[in-house]
Amino acid sequence: MDFSLSDDQRALQESARSFARRELPKVAQHCEATNTPVPHDMLQAYAEMGFLGINTPESFGGLGLTHLDALIVLEEFAKISSAVAFPVFEASVGPVRIVQKHGPQALADRVVRASVEGRVLVAISMSEPDAGTALTDLRTRAVVEGDTVTLNGTKRWCSGAGHSGAYVVFCRMSDAPGARGIGAVFVEKDTPGFTFGEPETLMGFRGIPSADMHFDDVRLPADNVLVPAGGFGDLMGAFNLERCGNATMSLGLAAGALDQALDYTGERQAFGKPLVDFQAVQMKLADMQLRCEAARLLIHRAVAGVDGFPSVMDASLAKCFANEMVREVAGHGVQVMGGYGYHSAYGMEQRFRDAWGWGIAGGAIDIQKINIAATLVGRRFDQRR
């Protein structure tokens, strides 16, 4: 069992790291200060470097590498900020993979190629005002009549809402109760009847737009059905890859916090010597490294050698641990930097705020623990009883 990266993977990692450190800090500062996404010209630079198609098959215009390769790149971008990493996240492990796997061939070819080329960002829309953790309570409904689908309802907490050019929308597609009635459709931003609420201001995730989405008799071609009613299991199976991406965003934030803490404690002096010479600081730095490395191993194990999608157990273990550890690691980062860690000009407090978001997005931490327990005992738990 070899835990080391291959020569090709190390070269890819170094390419991503060099690009991210050279090109993205100022972009990240702009995204944070203005709460706006990565500018289009930088998105084109991502595409030209191949960063939006790492694990996309060559037949769709991608590099045809593995999920692990994509997560190696994602971690390097996330070390800079969540906002600048988000396009890579969506293109590599997000809803584009659902379109690729389940969409009709013509739709998949058009959308996946556009994603790889940086011409469109695709977001996933799952939650609703009354359906978040209890996702099977969703009410947004798609009715198929002949060659037309009519979509009505409201969605909430969609990262990318209002900015992304297209959306994979989870919806109720039959009268069957619970998960059996749920499927998904593909909706493009400029479709008549599709509108957005006011942009939201969150604790973190600045530069990752979020807003309510409203569907008022939105008419779509039948070929925009990605997964019909009864395919909820397929959708959530694909979502396990997104959970590994979520875990990697957490890891990137934590690893970036560790890098920043190392630089600061090596340069900052107190009582005539560098902070790193104090044992209390050494303990925190060691703890930060330990947790980052453990999270990285869980994430890499979850996707290593996986052609399709990771298992629910491996994805939940990776996400749960990474979501918890990033909060602690970012907290240590704030503490060792003292007032500078708490100051918005130095970036550590931004990492701390973003850290809390990833443990809410993509299935809360406690839900991952329920998934883990359910897999351990071999049955699902009915939370309604």
Automatic annotation (TrEMBL):
Cite the GO molecular-function annotations of the record.
Answer: acyl-CoA dehydrogenase activity; flavin adenine dinucleotide binding
Domain of life the protein comes from: Bacteria
Q: Pfam families, from UniProt?
A: Acyl-CoA_dh_1, Acyl-CoA_dh_M, Acyl-CoA_dh_N
Ranges for the Acyl-CoA dehydrogenase/oxidase C-terminal domain? Answer: 230-376
Write the record's keywords in alphabetical order, separated by commas.
Answer: FAD, Flavoprotein, Oxidoreductase
Q: Which cofactor does it need?
A: FAD
Transmembrane segment boundaries: none
Q: Which GO terms describe its biological process?
A: butyrate catabolic process; fatty acid beta-oxidation using acyl-CoA dehydrogenase
The record's catalysed reaction(s) read: 3-sulfinopropanoyl-CoA + H2O = propanoyl-CoA + sulfite + H(+)
Q: What is its EC number?
A: 3.13.1.4
Residue intervals of the Acyl-CoA oxidase/dehydrogenase middle domain: 123-218
Q: What class of enzyme is it?
A: hydrolase
Q: Does the keyword tRNA-binding apply?
A: no
Q: Where is the Acyl-CoA dehydrogenase/oxidase N-terminal domain?
A: 6-118
Which family does the record claim for this protein?
Belongs to the acyl-CoA dehydrogenase family.
Can you name this protein? 3-sulfinopropanoyl-CoA desulfinase
Phylogenetic lineage: Bacteria, Pseudomonadati, Pseudomonadota, Alphaproteobacteria, Rhodobacterales
